[in-house]
Each structure stands twice: as C-alpha cells, then as structure tokens.
Task: structure prediction
Amino acid sequence: MNNSSIVGISVPRKEGQDKVTGRAQYIDDIVLPGMWYGATVRSTIPRGRIKQITFGAEVAWDDYVIVSAKDIPGKNCIALIAEDQPCLAENCINHPEEPILLLAHADRHALAKAVNAISIEYDPSPAVLTLEESERCCDIIWGSDNTFKTYVIQKGDIDSAWAKAAYIVEGEYRTGAQEQLYIENNGMIAWFDPEHGITVWGSLQCPYYVHKALMTLCQLPAERVRVVQVETGGAFGGKEDYPSMIAGHAALLAIKTRKAVKIIYDRLEDMAATSKRHPSRTRHRTAVSKDGKILGGTIDFTIDGGAYTTLSPVVLSRGAIHAGGPYYWPSVRITAKALATNAPPHGAFRGFGAPQSLFAMERHMDRIAQIIGASPIVVRQRNFLKPGQTTITEQAVREPIDLEKLLDRALELSSYQSRKESFAEENESGEIKKGIGVAAFLHGAGFTGSGERYLGSVVGVEACADGAVRVLVSSTEFGQGTKTALSQVAAETLGLGYEDVDVAPADTMEVPNSGPTVASRTVMVVGSLVCSAALGIRHALRQSGWLGDSYSPEEFRAACRNYVAAHGALRSWSRYEAPPDIFWDDEKHRGEAYAAFAWAVYIASVRVDLTTYTVSVDDFVALQEVGRVLHPVLAAGQITGGVAQGIGLSLYEKVIWQNGRMQNSQMTNYIMPTSLDVPPIRVFFEELGNVHGAFGAKGIGELPIDGPAPAIANAVADALGAPCDCVPLLAEDIFDILTTRVATADRSGSPSR
Amino acid sequence: MRSNPRDYQLVAPGTLHAVLSLLAEAPGKWLPIAGGTDLMVLYGAGKLAARNLVSIWSLPELRGIEVLPDQVRIGAGCTYAELREHPVIAREFPLLARAASWTGGTANQNRGTIGGNIVNASPAADSLPALLVYEAELILVSVRGERRVPYLGFHTGYKTTQLAGDELLRAVCLARQFSECLHHTRKVGARSAQAIAKVAIAALGGVAGGRVQEVRIALASVAPVPLRLFETERAVKGKSIDKCLLAAARRATVSEIRPIDDIRSTARYRSAVSSNLVEEFLRRLSAGAPI
Result:
C-alpha cells in the first residue's frame, strides 16, 4: 500500500457527473422496443372479501392484458421473512391499496381510465386500525393474537430495583408513520422469454431480495431470474422490500403479454400504497435512585406493522435493542411487540425502529430529570455507558468511548448553558418561547446479532483486461455514496488511484450476493470484504509473477492486463466470517448485538410562536463518533440531509389515516420541510476507529434520523414547560397540548406537572 | 399523469376577441386556462372534469399593470412574479405584493396569475384577503361588453363566482387611497414556503386620537369563501384599543368565521389562530408599528 490516502478525501462521486448532466438513466428514462405499460388495481377497503369484479363497458378490454392471482405461475406471495403477503389478493383484503389486478396496455395514457372502470364489490369486515384495537384482539386479523413477533430482553434483577428506588418514573411516548419521500418514485421494467426466464430492471436497494421473491413467485430457478438495479433516485429503506412487489407485478404482466412491461408509480400511488416508517408506542417505567441513577425498569415497545409481516420482526428487534439508549441499566425488561393492523404494511426506513425507541428513551430522560429535580444534562451524565460496562443485551462496551466528553463538546458547541439562561429570561414575556433540548444516543452498525453470519455475504474484486479493477457487489448506489466509498476502499487497499477502480453494475448475473444495502453495513461490512477480496487480486498477481513486491499504479494496471491476457479473467472472492469471540443468542436477544456502535449527541434550539403555535428550529448541533470518516463531504451530507429528514419527522410530516388509508398522499398536503424550515445544521465528527470496519469505519447514515426528534421535542417541552411526548408536533398538536393542559389544570385545581 | 391527453382539447386563439367569441358560441363549454398552476394539478391527478380548454396565457389584452392617478388597473393575466416586483404595488398595496410572494415557488409565480387566483375561488387563495381589504373592483368582459363588479360578493359560495359562462375576468382595479394606513398581513401555513394557508390575515387600519378610525380585516381558509370580518371591524371601529376591546374583537372574530376540520388543519386551531391574528394586528395598530 502506498501513501496515496484516498480514504478520508472527498473524491468526486463516481456517478456524480452523469447525474448532474442528466445522462444518468433512471428507470422511467428506459424504453425497450415494443414495451407495454402496467398499472395496478387496488383495494379501497381495509378488510373484507371480494364479492364481484365488474369491468366497465366504456373500455375496450380486448386491447388490455389483465392479470389476476390465477395467473401466478409459482406461489402467490412476496417471499421475504414470512410468506404471508400475497402478490395479488385473491379473495381476502387485508388493507387499503392492496393489489388485486394488474393491467397492461401499449399506451401508458390508456391505463388510468381502465383502472377507474373496474369496480369491485366487497363484503367488508370490521377493520383493526390502531395498536390498541389490535392488542384488544376483538377481531383477529393475523395469526392467533394479531402479533407478528414478540421479543423479551431481560437483564438483571428488576424486582430489587423497584425496592431500592427513590422515584419510579413512568411515561408513554409515540411516533407516527413517515414516508421516505425519495425523489424518484418506484418503478420497474420486466421482460420474459421462456429460454432466459425473467429479467427485471428497476429502482431498488436489494437486488437479491427481489431475486428471491421472483424465484418463488414465478417458480423459476436462480439462473433464470435476473435483477438489475438501474440508477436509483433515493431510497431511505423505502426501496428495500416493496420493489419485490412491483417487480413481481411487472414480471407477471411480462409473462402474460410476452412483452417488456414497465410499471411506474406516480407520487399519489407511491405514497398511498408503499411502506412507511412503523408508528410506535413506548411505555417506560423506571426505578431511579435519589441522585438520578437508573436502577432498572421496564420498557414496552410496540410497533404497528400493518397488515403483513414484511420486515417488522427485524425492525422490532433493532428498536428493542436501542430502547435503553446509551445508558447503563443494571436491570431491565424490554417487551417488544410488532402488531398487525389493517393498514398497508409498514417497512424499512432509515433507522429501522431505533428512531422510535430512542425518541422514547430521550424524552423519558428529560422526564426523569424533571421529576427528580435535576438538569437533563446531569441525569444523562450519571447514567452514560462506560467502557467495560454492558448494554441491555449484556454486550460489553469495548470501545474507548467517553460519552461525558462527547456531551461536553456538544454543550459547548451549542452554547447550551448561556442559551438556557437567556431563554429563561426572554420567555418571561412575549409570544415567542424559546427552548433547547438534548438527545444522546447510539446506533449499532451492520445487521443485528447473527444477521451477518446468516447472510454470509460474498464480495468479488476483478482485474479487468484494460488494467482497471472492478468491485463486484450487490450493494447498490442510491445517492448515499456506495460506489464512491467502495472504490475508495479498494483503491486505498491496493495503492491505486481512485480512477483505477470502479464498481460493477448491480446485476445478479454479474455480481455475488453481498447482502442488502441497508443498516450502514455497506462500508463497514461489505467494505471490509472489499479489502480482503482486493488483497486476493494482488496476491494472485504476485503469485503469477506479473507484479513485484512494490509497484506503481501503472505497474499494477500492467500486471492486470498481462494476467488477463495470459490466463483469462481474474476474480477474487471474499466471504463474511464472524469474528470468533462474538456471541449472540437469537432466542433471548442476548450478547453481541452489533459489531460496533456509533455514538452521538444532538442539540436543538427552537422557538415556539404562541400566536400560531408553530415551532421553528433555530440551531442544530450534530456531534457524532463514527469510527472513521471515509469521505468528509458525503458524510457531512448524510448527516445534514438526515437531520432535515428528522426535522420532518419531528415537526412536519404527519400521515393522515382514514380507515387505514393515507388521505394526504400528495406533496402539497404531506408536508416535508423546505430549505426555509431547516436551520443551519452544524455537523461535527469524532473518530475513534473500529477494528471491524473498512479503514475503521462504522455506520453513519442512521444517526441523523435518530437524534432530531427527541432533541427537538425536548427543546419544545423546555420552551413551553409542557410535555411533548408524541411526534410529529404540528402546530395543531402544540395548540392541543397547551389547551389540554390548561383544561386539566382547571379541573384538578393544580398544575398538571 | 392520471389523465389521457387524447381526452382533452386545447385551443389558443391568440386574441381576446377570438377567445370571447369562442366562449359566446357555447357558454360553459370552454374552460379558460392561463398559467395552469391550478388546472394542471387536477389534470395530473386525473380530476380535471373540463375537457375543452381555451388558452388565455399571454393574451396582450390581459397583461400589464396600469398606474392611473386614482387607481391601479392590474390585468387579469398578470403573474405573481410581476405583481411582487411592481414598485407601485409594493409601495401602495403591500398586502398584495406579499401575498404574491407567498404563492407556490418561483416556477408557480412565473405562471400563476391574479385572475386565475380570483376565478379559481379557493377560500385559501393567498391574494384574495388583500383584495377584500383593498375593496378591489373587477372588470368582467364578454362579447356583450364590459361590466364592473365589486370583488366583495364575487364569490357566491365554495368555488363558485358571479362569472357568466361567456365571460372572462379582464382586470382588477384598486383605488389608490391607502397610503396613510397600516397594512398588516400574515400567512399561517404548514411550512415557511410552498404551503397552502391554514389561516391567513390581511388587514389595514388607522388610529387617530387614540381611536380606531379606519379598519378592514379579511381572513383566508376560515369559511367557504375568503372572508371580510365586518362584525369584528364594527366591534373595534371608533374605539380605543385596550384589553377589553381585544377580547371583544376576538369574540367577534370567532363568531363570524366558519372554520372546518379538513386535511390541512382543525376548526379549533383555525378559530384560535384567527383570533390571535386579529389581536396581533390590533396590537400593532395600537402601537403604530410600520409594516
């Protein structure tokens, strides 16, 4: 390795030029010869049975190809964790917007009218629309008790904690659904011929998830299913599981029409039908000592999974493991449940359950502080995890993390103390109330527990005939920088220039299964495998005598050219192997939950205008320890964008449900923040390194969605002197909090707090 | 796009006379389309019922802002961008200039027109409270000739107007008589830009000898039409602004608005914010603060 040091430098994005010049081809830019267009007919009720389907006389149906569940060659399901979700509903409807029929036509404009001309008569059943209705089990809509999954994590002796407690602090916290709002809507093209099988091109995160789903749905062997990711305009988890559904639909239409078929969702359909962040409810009951130490407690973490299992058990697991925050719990019992409701299934979204449980934990820390009469800072300081202590899953903290120092730096960066004082003074009069709030948190990088072991990811690196090096992974680029970062890792490993390395297109015919592109595992886990596969190339070149012990990039390229000319293709493979000292008990959720944690303290300053009850964020400090920053511009971009998305989750983005159906599925009424609603976001990194990650990297991407909601809710509560335990906090919610509080105080004759 | 372009017909005759003749041939058959910032949203969602569209975009007879000694005549085809940039509008009718700056983003402001905002008749429209407060007069035109109607009363109900099937809105006239007044406006949307008003206020007033001499208040999004608050105005006119008057004004406001729960907000919230906005205006009026 020479000292070119590509890692840590903000090199240009591999696909950046194509994107800014408009050359990048997204799925809707691609037109295949003779291609038809597909559309989906969906349910309008949350639950019931289909009685009759009528095709209106105003449409020339002979010009259309119609697919129903009967046309499915294989199993009618979207194969993922469970196989409970049909690709097309046959009789039973379990949520609004559930796909029932597919239509294809040569003219894409001819579809909307045809979809509207199909009327479906239902025999409706009572729907389960809230967590409370689901757990009451009056109507059973899934399994025997409406529960997709339950986890119980138990540590220490809670009974003795209650006995020793000076205070028992209780609280209930809720978070809402959130739409991922990638810029590019979902879309797929499928093509079928009996010899080659099915090929799909699409906007997606996880080619091998789609591959698996298509094998099951079309009853085809692996080699006759090909999935190709094309340029993808954002995903945020929203293109982790649902693309399997759209790919399945396009494939069914392609099989029946014998033509290439394109399905593109418009924003209305994408928002109404595809997955969102799981709504959550968390109940804390905590035993606290006189001086503010957590002695133990119970945490009930419940998420709304919607109508089918999809990824809910995994979201639940991550949420449960993060539920205790970055604190030391001598004893704790976490009961986590994913429940079924008759809403479209909720799915993956940046943070994957952790933002929900961390919101509760960090609001609860402020409640503890308030009840014991200490500052939110002191309560956090007294309970921070320290190296050598164990997390709630009894994973020892091995990194030399000093959370008190991290907090001190964040307090200084945000001028916490002086702001706290000046806000108290300013708030005495006027209609503007200011507040400041802190959130301290952690985020586990990579798959949870034995996830990586089960995945057994494989990465390839290839020496090409022209002397270049190509990384072969199914890890996809969707704006977050996969191609750039993995190229940096390979180039640095081999001592090459950044331009000598590229990443092969994510095409299942070409690349091995390096696992899904999720959970910040790409740089940490896949990046490490890229290192070892790259070293394999160098080893082979040396063994064959084409490369000396020391070499220039030009000598390396020449060695690649010579090798390929003499021996043919040179590929080196590397498979994930779990470190030997890692222990994880899936059943009890105990042991090493993550190979590494990233740590962070975020501080928000807000103002609430009591004339309009609107909150605005005036300042935001995001300080995090991330192992090693591989690309400063991309890393800061991840944090800035994520915080903006977190501000959306906190203050703006509210899904309005009616009978399980999203009412505001347009960007004019589902409100995401604009640049005017986002303050300057001040991003700071600390780097302690990480023995498990490529060049010391951990995860970055999820941190900025974990911290904003609790920091902002704590700041709003600070400004108003009233609890803000649910997000989003829209102006109407602030108004309700203030007026309900007055009403409660009037009734009881004493302040409610 | 949920509409099929083949289902629609768009003609662009190019002159006012030709457009009016077309409208007269079959009143109600043709829907005029100017910038399209409202209609194209409906088209995209597959909800544009009118199938025959006649373009009035860029008709020279509808363009321009004419400044006369006693009034300003704004062509119905004037865009928000033109309104917000016009020096006389900005100086003498700041409520309108501000409202124009709030509508959509730059692209919308380059296409959206004042005439479209009026005829579309949304109770949430940004520029309409300002027109109520300035007591605008509208010039309607058809092959039958021109008629002038006060803007107040032009909206006959939710999304309905006095415009006949063969008529076009030609211009909006504003009397130049408000330079001595305090102009006050505030929009409450779900975010700082690109938002539809949950409540908005436009108001002007003047205080002399400690008493309210002139006062006009209008609100958006609190009734089926943009609403002038005559009761509230009556409650404060001629009185001095004190705590008691503020309470009376709040009561009057709440009694004359008819807010609803909808996808954007709640009636409870709109009601509280409406009276807060009225109070805020009166407090400014009392303090004599400049806009």
The interface with chain A takes residues 1-7, 41, 44-46, 188, 190-196, 198, 263-266, 268-269, 272-273, 276-277, 280 of chain B (CB under 8 Å). DSSP finds eleven helices and 14 strands in chain B. Chain B has three domains: 5-55, 60-175, 182-287.
